[in-house]
From TrEMBL, chain A:
It comes from the Bacteria. InterPro entries: RNA_pol_sigma-70-like, RNA_pol_sigma-70_dom, RNA_pol_sigma70_r2, RNA_pol_sigma70_r4_t2, RNA_pol_sigma_r2, RNA_pol_sigma_r3/r4-like, WH-like_DNA-bd_sf. Residues 12-79 form the RNA polymerase sigma-70 region domain. Residues 106-157 form the RNA polymerase sigma factor 70 region 4 type domain. The keyword Transcription regulation applies. This is Sigma-70 family RNA polymerase sigma factor. Belongs to the sigma-70 factor family. ECF subfamily. It comes from Ravibacter arvi. Keywords: Sigma factor, Transcription, Transcription regulation.
UniProtKB/TrEMBL annotation, chain B:
It comes from the Bacteria. The chain crosses the membrane at residues 45-64, 70-88, 125-142, 162-181. This is Uncharacterized protein. Keywords: Membrane, Transmembrane, Transmembrane helix. The keyword Membrane applies.
């Protein structure tokens, strides 16, 4: 019975592993820290899995647990040399080379590291295509608050990118 | 940077670097701050339990006169009852801390509230133990006095002042240690969650 539950759980997590990838990339700068955070998220998902009600989407529930785990994961990590030009980054030798990796997306991820945990959550939900209403439900704040905070966060992110790179 | 245009790239990103284990048992030990806190609580609970059980054997270990057993074990039974209540409450906190399925604000608020409540519980439990230790120490001291053929009337004024000062100083020391230990174990996490709550509820 438990084995069935475990295999269903792991299958669902596997289907939605993109969430793990994106959340960890937003909240952890280095590959080893990302891997640790992914593990922490899986542990928390498993712990709460019995409370998952199948009337809601697994992905919606997974967003919550993943974001809540990531924002309370206060571990101080070693920061990589802060440059937004990926080809100049000095701490990427241990990362798997991926020719298809998009330069703009890398710049975006690196700029994201300079945001606060709640700002990262807002940007994550925005990039995932959630409406203001859905984001408000996930974060437990008002829709107006989401709209204003998100607008401020996007502006902040634009300024960070402009300030530290050539802008796009 | 056009974030709307970036969404397509975001959606088509390959999550190659994610490793999903084949079984839950293959996951590493959790290092999340709240999981570490749970582990500390679990270890502490065992040592507290051992200390409470050891307190039951103090009369035999220190050779307290059987005439004082009734007084000692009355105080000890009160210690057992209050400890039972606190252990139960600590267990409830231990079980529930770190469940993140509610919305972010609610989860953070719940963790913060439970953490602060547990800090207060921990401190009040520690403070409640002080009168028990006072009774135990007084009984052992009085028993020794009698065995030396002395009475309370024979304690000089200077000795009385010393006893009072030592009691006062050790009580203050114990209170300080309990407060500092609680802040050391829970304080950092509570402050960090408080910061997140302020950030999330920073209304317009």
């Amino acid at each position: 019975m438990d084995n069935d539950k475990e295999s269903v759980f792991l299958k669902l997590v596997h289907q939605h592993k993109g969430i793990l990838h994106k959340v960890s990339k937003m909240y952890a700068d280095l590959p080893e820290n990302r891997e640790d955070l992914q593990q922490e998220i899986i542990i928390q998902l498993w712990k709460s899995f019995s409370l998952f009600e199948s009337k809601s989407e697994f992905s919606t529930w997974m967003y919550r647990v993943a974001i809540n785990t990531a924002i309370t994961y206060f571990r101080k990590e070693k920061k990589r040399t802060r440059t937004f030009a990926p080809e100049l980054s000095t701490d990427t030798a241990d990362e798997i080379y991926d020719a298809g990796r998009d330069e703009q997306l890398e710049i975006f991820y690196q700029a994201i590291q300079l945001l606060g945990p709640i700002e990262k959550a807002l940007m994550f939900y925005y990039m995932e295509g959630l409406s203001h209403k859905e984001t408000a439900l996930q974060l437990g704040i008002s829709e107006i608050n989401v709209r204003v905070k998100l607008s401020r966060t996007k502006e902040k992110l634009q300024n960070l990118i402009k300030k530290q790179s050539h802008g796009f | 940077m056009d974030f709307e245009a970036l969404k397509n790239k975001w959606n088509s990103e390959n999550p190659a670097e994610v490793n999903i284990p084949s079984t839950i048992a293959r996951l590493k030990k959790a290092q999340h701050p709240l999981e570490k806190l749970r582990r500390t609580m679990k270890n502490e609970c065992w040592s507290q339990l051992a200390a409470v059980l050891f307190a039951g054997a103090i009369p035999q270990v220190f050779g307290l006169s059987p005439a004082f057993y009734v007084v000692y074990y009355t105080a000890y039974s009160m210690l057992l009852v209050t400890s039972g209540y606190y252990f139960y409450e600590f267990y409830q906190f231990y079980k529930e801390v770190g469940l993140y399925h509610a919305d972010t604000h609610e989860s953070l608020w719940k963790i913060y509230y439970e953490l602060r409540l547990n800090m207060e519980r921990y401190q009040s439990f520690g403070f409640l133990l002080l009168p028990y230790f006072l009774v135990a120490t007084a009984l052992l001291g009085y028993d020794r006095l009698i065995s030396e053929g002395k009475t309370l009337q024979q304690i000089t004024s200077q000795q009385q002042v010393i006893i009072l000062l030592v009691t006062l100083f050790s009580t203050l020391l114990a209170i300080g240690a309990i407060v500092l230990w609680t802040r050391y174990v829970y304080g950092k996490t509570a402050r960090e969650i408080d910061g997140l709550l302020k950030e999330i509820k920073d209304e317009i």
